[in-house]
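PROTEIN DESIGN WORKSHEET
SECTION A - STRUCTURE
LENGTH: 213
TOKENS:
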């Protein structure tokens, strides 16, 4: 009787993924990201304050509209950030190809460079790539995906729509009944909040990047 060879699966990709997710840098990134999200959501204002129709009125002038926006941005910064994220999500979900491209790009950065163990080189078609070569390939891929496909225009248009919604609401929401907490600075607006969140994510990934420079 002839022996039959049973098909076997190659565990190398699964082993590499497990090794990446087990790295201290990846665990630190997830921990910092989780902590940042919990802290940010704890500052979210009740949604009924955002949609209270009795507090909505048309501004009498552009100066008044700008003043309302400056006052509403620090107060509703977390709610506005969630709205921006929702607009981005809807835009990406309505364009599956762009969503797949963006997810593939983010996964490539995470698993091929940021959180890849330093003792495991990137091997493509039997050729091992150094960290510098890997970084160059990722930068070229990022430029291609963002500027030479529909991803870049989709992200920009979604952000513009999101900021337009935020500005319209901020201009029509009467801020007289809104008071910032004592520990919150008055100039802590939406952009500074987004910058702080980005800084936290960058700080979590900084050790992994510094080890490759």
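SECTION B - SEQUENCE
RESIDUE ASSIGNMENT:
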């Amino acid at each position: 009787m002839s022996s039959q060879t049973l098909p076997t699966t190659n565990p190398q990709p699964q082993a590499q993924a497990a090794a990446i997710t087990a790295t201290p840098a990846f665990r630190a990134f997830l921990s910092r990201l989780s902590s940042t999200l919990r802290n940010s959501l704890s500052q979210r204002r009740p949604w009924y304050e955002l949609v209270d129709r009795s507090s909505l009125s048309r501004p009498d002038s552009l100066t008044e509209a700008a003043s309302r926006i400056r006052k509403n941005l620090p107060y509703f910064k977390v709610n506005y950030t969630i709205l921006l994220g929702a607009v981005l999500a809807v835009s990406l979900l309505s364009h599956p190809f762009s969503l797949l491209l963006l997810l593939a790009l983010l996964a490539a950065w995470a698993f091929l460079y940021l959180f890849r163990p330093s003792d495991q080189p990137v091997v493509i078609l039997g050729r091992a790539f150094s960290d510098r070569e890997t970084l160059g390939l990722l930068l070229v891929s990022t430029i291609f995906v963002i500027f030479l496909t529909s991803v870049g225009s989709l992200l920009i248009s979604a952000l513009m729509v999101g900021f337009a919604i935020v500005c319209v609401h901020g201009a029509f929401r009467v801020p007289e009944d809104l008071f910032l907490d004592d520990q919150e600075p008055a100039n802590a607006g939406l952009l500074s909040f987004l910058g702080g969140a980005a800084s936290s994510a960058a700080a979590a990934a900084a050790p992994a990047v510094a080890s490759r420079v």
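SECTION C - NOTES
The two ends are 59 Å apart (CA to CA).
Residues 110 and 116 are 7 Å apart (CA to CA).
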